[in-house]
Specification:
FAD/NAD(P)-binding domain, eight-stranded mixed β-sheet, elongated, FAD-bd, alpha+beta
């Protein structure tokens, strides 16, 4: 058993996408950083098939990876740019097409495997002390520092601990930060599908009363499926054999890409909304899913986490410039103010979409069809929607510039 005790500016618990990228960002900003992770991630291998966990990374959050020197490692290995998004309602002819040319961008985003981003970040942790495999057993928060006691016998002393270990964050629990939220009574079925026709680098999403069906383009011509369905339908889909599932999916997608010829490994996970009532307390901060989990309908979960990284890094840099340590609440509150309002707005929007499109109320059905039609016919509205989706802003923290 190790008995070492070390002092750092920041200790990050959780080495997934958000935690690992945050560790790179802070170490590149000359903070001393410790990273605690239960299991070292497997090296990414392009010979392996696509992982089930993928994200649609928008141009704004992608800049975070680019400014940290991580994007080249992602782009040269395996990712797929998409240049348009088509959204349509199953109950009408209303449809909306958003394309990159509307805002002068070469693409609207990239479909990337989560494991590839994690691998790229871990290879860049050269100036970070990694405690792995190790898990947090307890926290002791004092006036001038926080002590992390790990299950391998190590003790870490830091000015700040960041919980970036997901929705069931032990750091959040240890700090006594409460959450609000609810389960949606839905599950999302994911996996790689082979359609009859090429995706043409477009993300396709059809809204139905039981939940949307989305196809995200992959580099090899296949699509990553995200089929959000009420629990009863999801359970029914899970019982279907391969051919029956593909036939059902072809029907649900209205054959937009022709017949679904093949469905590789599939899995389903429950959907929920969760939001921490605070993003920071003395010597404690939360980032990524430890702070917020939203319905994946809009594909914004990882993007919000990367924006957390940019804002938290900026807040800690500002604190240091004012001769404050990384755990200073004045600058942690700056991070909370910057991110909480934006995250709540996005969570509210996706929750509203879920409820509007999950309702069989005739009035709501009529309103949503009209909304798609209005947005489709008015270019300024389409541009506003695209700007929001791609996560670009004229101002913002250094890592987003």
């Amino acid at each position: 058993m190790s008995t070492r005790t070390s002092r750092y500016d920041v200790a990050i618990v959780g080495g997934g996408m958000v935690g690992a990228v945050l560790a790179v960002a802070l170490s590149r900003a000359d903070f001393s950083v410790a990273l605690v992770e239960a299991k070292r991630p497997k090296r990414f291998d392009t010979n392996d098939d696509y992982d089930l966990r993928l994200s649609a990374i928008a141009p704004g959050p992608r800049r975070v990876l680019d400014n940290l020197g991580l994007w080249d490692s992602v782009e040269r290995r395996r990712c797929c740019a998409f240049t348009g998004m088509k959204v349509w309602d199953a109950g009408s002819a209303a449809e909306l097409f958003l394309e990159h040319t509307a805002v002068g961008l070469p693409e609207l985003g990239h479909i990337v495997e989560n494991d590839l981003v994690v691998d790229s970040a871990w290879q860049a942790l050269t100036d970070v002390d990694i405690f792995c495999p190790a898990m947090l057993e307890s926290l002791a928060i004092e006036t001038d520092a926080v002590h992390l006691y790990l299950d391998d016998g190590s003790t870490i002393k830091a000015a700040l601990v960041v919980g970036a270990e997901g929705a069931n964050s032990p750091v959040r629990a240890a700090a006594g930060i409460e959450t609000a939220g609810w389960a949606y009574g839905q599950r999302c079925t994911v996996g790689a599908v082979t359609p009859e026709r090429h995706h043409r680098h477009i993300a396709w999403q059809r809204f139905m009363e039981t939940g949307p069906v989305a196809f995200l383009p992959l580099a090899d011509g296949r699509c990553s499926l995200a089929w959000h369905a009420d629990d009863a339908l999801a359970a029914e889909l899970a019982e279907l054999d391969h051919d029956a599932f593909c036939a059902r999916l072809t029907e649900a997608s209205a054959g937009v890409l022709g017949r679904i010829e093949r469905m590789d490994t599939r899995a389903a996970f429950p959907l929920k909304l969760m939001h921490a009532r605070e993003y920071c307390r003395p010597r404690v901060a939360l980032a990524g899913d430890a702070a917020h989990v939203l319905h994946p309908m809009a594909g914004q979960g990882v993007n919000l986490g990367l924006l957390d990284v940019a804002e938290l890094t900026a807040a800690l840099e500002a604190g240091r410039a004012a001769n404050r340590d990384a755990g200073d609440m004045t600058y942690l509150r700056r991070y909370q103010r910057a991110r909480m309002a934006e995250n709540l707005m996005m969570m509210g929007a996706t929750d509203a979409l879920k409820r509007v499109y999950g309702s069989d109320n005739p009035l709501l059905r009529s309103l949503r069809q009209q909304a798609i039609g209005v947005a489709s016919n008015l270019a300024p509205i389409r541009q506003i929607m695209i700007h929001q989706a791609v996560g670009l802003a004229a101002d913002g923290p250094r890592l987003l510039q």
